[in-house]
Design brief:
227 residues, alpha+beta, 4-stranded antiparallel beta sheet, two-stranded antiparallel sheet, 8 helices
């Protein structure tokens, strides 16, 4: 295998539109979370955290348009298909300890926001937004891949990137006062308040998602290009 396995895998995921990644080890993450959220592997086993910016959207749109059957959740389905394919094409099967997706329910759920912070990918802010130093809150976290491999280098835990108390935190508190959505129907009534919290962040404004991507993520409204 030429080059670091984590770098090869990150590059393979990026070709599908998952253009953000960070590296840490199991032993840096597990002590920070409850047992139910811990990852398998040795303390020095590599963990690659995969995410995306708006770079995912054209790749996802192309995938949906080429699909022969309707997809209940195109983002989750595409994430699983693509990242699993990237793993198979770059990493020997006996090196893969686990692959977990952010959308998986217990008992496979992970604290992926905390994991991303430990890996240096994004800072977990008081407003519960993950803030990337360049793209701000306009990112999504998709998967964690644990490898039987000691990484050559790991990320430094992400540090605060902005003053949330003066910007996104007040907007977050207004959204919270309206009630935490317990499903899509309730979110459709308050989504603009939650979007306002994201919009209030001063970091990464030029990387804001397109209107159609925002509408899909917050309301489930599918773009015309998908139909």
């Amino acid at each position: 295998m030429n080059g670091a396995p984590t770098a090869q895998l990150a590059a393979a995921c990026a070709r599908f539109g998952f253009d953000l990644s960070g590296v840490t080890v199991v032993g840096a993450y597990n002590p920070l979370v409850d047992e139910a959220f811990r990852l398998p592997g040795r303390d020095d086993s590599a963990v690659l955290v995969i995410g995306n910016t708006s770079a995912l959207w054209p790749k996802l749109t192309e995938f949906v348009r080429s699909s022969s059957t309707p997809l209940a959740d195109p983002v989750d389905f595409y994430s699983e298909q693509s990242i699993e394919s990237a793993v198979r094409s770059t990493i020997p099967a006996d090196m893969v300890i686990d692959l977990r997706f952010a959308h998986e329910p217990p008992p496979r759920r992970i604290a992926i926001q905390r994991l991303a912070q430990v890996a240096g990918l994004a800072w977990l802010s008081p407003s519960h937004l993950c803030i990337h130093h360049e793209f701000g809150p306009w990112i999504a976290l998709r998967a964690a891949i644990v490898l039987d491999h000691r990484p050559e280098a790991v990320g430094t835990p992400a540090q605060p990137t902005c003053d949330c108390a003066a910007h996104c935190l007040p907007a977050f508190e207004r959204a919270l006062a309206a009630g935490v959505p317990d499903g899509r129907a309730q979110l459709e009534k308050t989504w603009e308040l939650w979007l306002a919290a994201r919009d209030a962040c001063r970091v990464g404004r030029k990387h804001r998602y397109s209107d159609e991507q925002i509408l899909y993520h917050y309301t489930g409204a599918r773009p015309i290009a998908w139909l």
